[in-house]
Design goal:
This protein is α/β, with parallel strands linked by helices. 38% of the residues lie in helices and 14% in strands. Helix 3 packs parallel to helix 10 and helix 13 packs across helix 15. It binds pyridoxal-5'-phosphate (PLP).
């Protein structure tokens, strides 16, 4: 039977210390031991179920990580203080000086900047490719390559990665496929499709409240173990751990993720069809004319739709800016970066979340100066929202 992420979460039985229906929050940095030997065993990673110090593991973080692993169908998870904390730790765990990465050129701006500007400090080089061009991926691999990196649905171009095909290439070369699934939790399950490591910014859909930044890494028991090894683990030594008070609040929000994803997707599909009908240059993976539509269909869980992200191209940034100001004024949503919020958020990608990407690379990937990226909200009355958008479009004429 196919892995059902919402069922997997539903079936988790996690109680608090007193039978609380919400797991207890462990507000503690350190933990006592009754026997000294147990402490030294724990340091060597040899005592299951013992907590040592909260930079390594905290029970509240473990509750959240266990639910995330269940959702992804991976052996384990680990939670970080931001999405970038997850991405950078996972990458640094896989790569040594002299190693090489093949990455999608359309990725989150911070990820792009980390690979392009920061990793060369350690002589780790990245070749950026159009991730939908599998020959380009194959040709970019060198004997030093350790990771193929992509996003299930790329930011901000909304390309769809062919995860099974990329996994096959990675396996042929005995390297890792790392997938950022931030845009499509529950909709796409990268690990079930062959990805070795899944990373998230939980700041977005998973938490869905825009009240914090957080991230997660899901993978094998062995990989997570290596990340938090007291002597050599990147996460343990760089210390990007999530605060347990936060992880307990994210855990509660995770239990409504399936309902939210359905509503985000339903509203985005409605707007996409209307925008298309109005003659706008729109990109939404749920529309049959989207380049990645068939691949998306073949690897998605149809219960959760095509996601809440869409973009329209207004050609110039002046037009994009005026349109976004009008939409904010007329209650469509907020002019803000980020995504996965209960209200619609929109931003001009080239000048905001992808501004780390140099202009010539933006041109190469086809990122138009007038691209407005929408994270469609949970609006109950999406028809009314569309009427407001239509009104804003009229005011632009
Ligand atoms: C926001 C985002 C990140 C970075 O996450 P933070 O929580 O802001 O550190 C990484 N990848 C994608 C796709 C994102 O949207």
């Amino acid at each position: 039977m196919k892995h059902d992420p919402s069922r997997a979460i539903f079936e988790m039985k996690q109680f608090g210390e007193f039978g609380d229906v919400n797991p207890s929050i462990t507000d503690s940095a350190t933990y006592t031991f009754l026997q000294a030997k147990t402490m030294s065993d724990t340091f060597h990673g040899e005592s299951e179920g013992c907590f040592l110090y909260s930079r390594h593991w905290n029970p509240s973080n473990k509750y959240l990580a266990d639910v995330l692993a269940a959702m992804e169908g991976t052996e384990e998870g680990w939670v970080t203080a931001s999405g970038m904390g997850a991405i950078t730790s996972a990458i640094l765990q896989c790569c040594n000086a002299g190693d090489h990465i093949v990455s999608s050129v359309t990725t989150y701006g911070g990820t792009f900047a980390f690979m392009q500007n920061y990793l060369p400090k350690f002589n780790i080089k990245t070749t950026f490719v159009d991730i939908t061009d599998l020959d380009a991926v194959r040709n970019a691999i060198t004997p030093e390559t350790k990771i193929i990196y992509t996003e299930s649905m790329t930011n901000p171009m909304l390309q769809i990665s062919d995860i099974p095909a990329l996994a096959e290439i990675a396996n042929e070369h005995n390297i890792k496929l790392m997938v950022d699934n931030t845009f499509t939790p529950m909709i796409i399950q990268p690990a079930a499709l062959g990805a070795h490591i899944v990373v998230y910014s939980m700041t977005k859909f998973i938490n869905g409240k825009n009240d914090c930044v957080a991230g997660a890494i899901c993978g094998t028991h062995e990989f997570i173990g290596s990340l938090i090894d007291v002597n050599s683990g990147t996460a343990m030594l760089l210390g990007p751990v999530l605060d347990p008070l936060r992880s307990s609040s994210i855990l509660k929000n995770l239990h409504t993720l399936h309902i939210r994803m359905q509503q985000h997707s339903k509203n985005a599909m409605y707007l996409a069809i209307k925008m298309k009908g109005a003659g706008l240059k729109i990109s939404y993976p749920g529309l049959p004319d989207h380049k990645g539509h068939e691949i998306m269909k073949s690897q998605m869980n149809p219960d959760f739709g095509y996601g809440g992200m869409l973009s329209i191209d207004l050609i110039t940034s002046d037009k994009a800016n005026r349109f976004m100001e009008l939409m904010e004024m007329h209650d469509v949503g907020y002019l803000a970066v980020s995504l996965g919020y209960f209200k619609t958020l929109f931003s001009n990608s080239g000048k905001s979340t992808s501004s780390e990407v140099p202009q010539d690379v933006q041109d190469d990937m086809g990122l138009s100066a007038g691209l407005v990226r929408f994270s469609v909200g949970l609006d109950h009355d999406i028809e009314r929202t569309w009427k407001s958008i239509e009104y804003c479009l009229k005011m632009m004429e």
